Amino acid sequence: MILDTSSHNIAVRKFFEKNALNYAREINIWITRRRADFIKSVAWGRVLDVGVGPGQLAQEYGLCPIVACDASAQMIKLAKERLNHGRFVVCDAEDLPFSSECFDTVVASELIYYLGMPERFFSESSRVLRDEGQLVLIFGRSNVLCKLISKVATLLHLRPKDDFALHSLDIKSVMDMGRSKGFSVVGFFSNWNSQWKNLNIGLRFLPLFLLCGLVFRLNGKDSS
């Protein structure tokens, strides 16, 4: 078990240890299935799901073989109970305990808000992916509508109060961070359109999206 000891990551881990059961309840199956359909359309080979949570999304996309990890032991316990296949590891997303070049796809859905140093996660994803491997990154938009929906869900006790969520970097910063670690952006996803074939057109409509995702492809190791 490898866990980051930074104060931020300790706080995040404690939050999820306390609230794991609340996150195990399905709030919006439509959104979960949209995310799952997108992941199935782009993921391939050996899959690593980082920040698997209680496993609802992994259950929907159902790719095998899968290795699932989370910083919360309680989340991993729930994911094991939900999924009938795979390997489960408690670890920190910024310090992945896996060999280099051992995965073809890394999935990280609604993870980036919780990272103290997201650039370390990109570095680790680059390290564990094989050449031409893909990182599928999905996250909620940090806009007024998303924050309002989250607040209403909290008031209705559909989800716990979460001060970490929806504090994403802007999408350009996320893309630049990926490119700095040897990735190219090859796909874009939104909740209204499973996959935008034209990245630039998709980005023009970005203010309208509640949920979006990026597919990064790892360039050759010798060119990164």
Give me the strand/helix succession. HHEHEHEEHEHHEHE
Count the DSSP helices: 8
Share of helical residues:
25-40%
Main sheet characteristics: 7 strands, mixed
Distance between the termini: 29 Å
Report the sheet-strand fraction. 15-25%
Gyration radius, rounded: 16 Å
What is the SS-derived class?
A: alpha/beta
List how many beta strands DSSP finds.
Answer: 7
Main-sheet strand order equals 3-2-1-4-5-7-6
What overall form do the CA principal axes indicate?
globular
The average pLDDT score comes to 82
Unreliable parts = none
How does this model look, in words?
This protein has a 7-stranded mixed beta sheet, with helices on both faces. The mean pLDDT is 82. The chain is globular. It contains 8 helices and 7 strands. It starts with 6 loop residues before the first helix and ends in a 6-residue tail after the last strand. It has helices at 7-23, 29-42, 56-61, 73-82, 118-128, 144-155, 171-180, 199-204, and strands spanning 47-50, 66-70, 87-90, 103-109, 129-140, 183-190, 211-218. With 224 residues, it is an alpha/beta fold.
Compact description:
The chain is α/β, with parallel strands linked by helices and 224 residues long. 38% of the residues lie in helices and 21% in strands.
Keywords, separated by commas or semicolons:
alpha/beta; globular; 7 strands; single chain; seven-stranded mixed beta sheet; 8 helices; 224 residues
Write the layout of secondary structure elements.
Layout: H1 7-23, H2 29-42, E1 47-50, H3 56-61, E2 66-70, H4 73-82, E3 87-90, E4 103-109, H5 118-128, E5 129-140, H6 144-155, H7 171-180, E6 183-190, H8 199-204, E7 211-218
Parallel strand pairs: 1-2, 1-4, 2-3, 4-5
Antiparallel strand pairs: 5-7, 6-7
